[in-house]
Amino acid sequence: MIRFENVTKTYKGSTVALRDITVEIEKGEFVFLVGASGSGKTTFIRLLLREELPDSGQILEAGRNIVELPKWRVPYLRRNIGCVFQDFRLLPNKSVFENVAFALEVIGRPRHVVANQVPQVLDLVGLAGKRDNLPNELSGGEQQRVAVARAFVNRPLILLADEPTGNLDPQTSQGIMQLLDRINRTGTTVVVATHDEVLVDKMRRRVIELSNGAMVRDQARGVYGFDGSGQQTIEVAAGGMG
Amino acid sequence: MAVSVDYVVRETASNLWRNRLMTIAAVLTVAVSLSLVGAALLLRQGSANATGTLERGTQVTVWMVPNANSQEIAAVGTQLAQLNYVVQPCAYWNKARNFAEARRLLPSDVFQATTESEMPTSYWCTPVALTDAAQVVRTFSGTSGVLSVTEPQQTIHNEETVINVSKWVCLAIAIVLIISAAVLILNTIRMAIFARRREVSVMKLVGATNWFIRVPFMSEGLLQGFIGSLLAAVVVYFVYLFINHEGSGRTTSNIFTAMHMTGSEVLLTNVVVVIVGMAIGSIGSAIAIRRFLDV
Questions:
Q1: Are residues B208 and A76, on separate chains, in Cβ contact within 8 Å?
Q2: ipTM of the modeled complex
Q3: Range of the domain at A153
Q4: Could you tell me if residue A71 is inside a domain?
Q5: Mutation target among A74, A76, A106, A155 for the B interface, most CBs of B within 10 A
Q6: Using one digit for the tens of pLDDT, what is the confidence trace for B252-294?
């Protein structure tokens, strides 16, 4: 579903954000992307959204090379990728229902599709009862659920989450993770960039660790901190730390 | 891509309402600038009409002194009949005819002091070309028995100069105002983009096409230009009514009579005004979108 081939990304001022990354994520996988601040997690997500282009290397998503994708096709790529962020990015003057419906309306989905899909996805995230509330009437966890609903309402192939629990307390965070897990079980590929050690350890999913832009670990059923206690490392990209 | 009309109308209306003070400023500036453009265009048309009307009626008049004797009058008549740059024959108006004409044209209180015997006789000649009028003036000025030779062209020139100057002043002011109108629209759209930056970022995130994001802003600028130009068209129409009203129903003709214009000329002017207005709106919003809407 996602393949990075020798991807390097450098920002102006010679900061290396990603260094020669090669990794493959299969359809339907749930992957944690871990590492300290500045390790390149967000760049990884931005490359997948094609908000950035790599300096070198290829990125394939759903069999398509997105590096060579013409600019006008980018919106169509993004229709296949849902994304949630630490700061929710909801529209404050729209209700829960309208926020989710907006994602369908602006890609030209007909009204009956909106009327059908939005209640379904609100049901999935457990907010059916709050459809007419404004975002500022909701708790942080509920707001993030709305954001997840908006990212998922168009049934994307891939769901990206950049620090989705960064602003939430541990218990609420766990609820969001369970929600992402439920979405993963519908066959959607989920990539979560996070700092949250407890959650990563608890979920026991594939973990890709970045450090200073290099991939230092790719471990199935991993935990946050690399303890080297016999967990099987499937693949560590060539290149290592620079 | 399917940008639905319904969506664009809704978004445009809510943008305009949210930004209504700036919108009013932009629309009024468009209206004022285009009123001036329209007025300048009308004046241009009017002065063309006036020149046409006046040129057709251009005559050189050789006025004899009231006490000129018949030899002098006949001599001038013979000399006129030999000129090849004058349409033959020249009309000879005796005292009675000039007296009647004067009574018709002049206000009665001015006219009362005059008697028929004090009136001059005159020859009315049409030059072949307008420029030949001056030649007639030169030939007969100072001839014995000739009081004066009048050439109405001088008055035409004066009136044309007035029309021309006001036309160019109108156009110059209009161009300055058109630029400020475009800048105001640009600023309105910039503010609209700024007010909606969250929406725009979400739209980009979920995969709305660039055109889908741009169209409401473009139609907002276009609509401001259009409404402004409609107001200007109404003003231009009233200018037209004024010119035709002032120019008719008077005992004496004036410059407005000569400028008399038809409805189709006004319609054409207004079509130009509306097109320019929509162009201002599109250019203003296009620049704002290029500069400030990063899609």
A1: no
A2: 0.85
A3: 79-203
A4: no
A5: A106
A6: 556 676 677 777 888 888 999 999 999 999 999 999 999 988 7
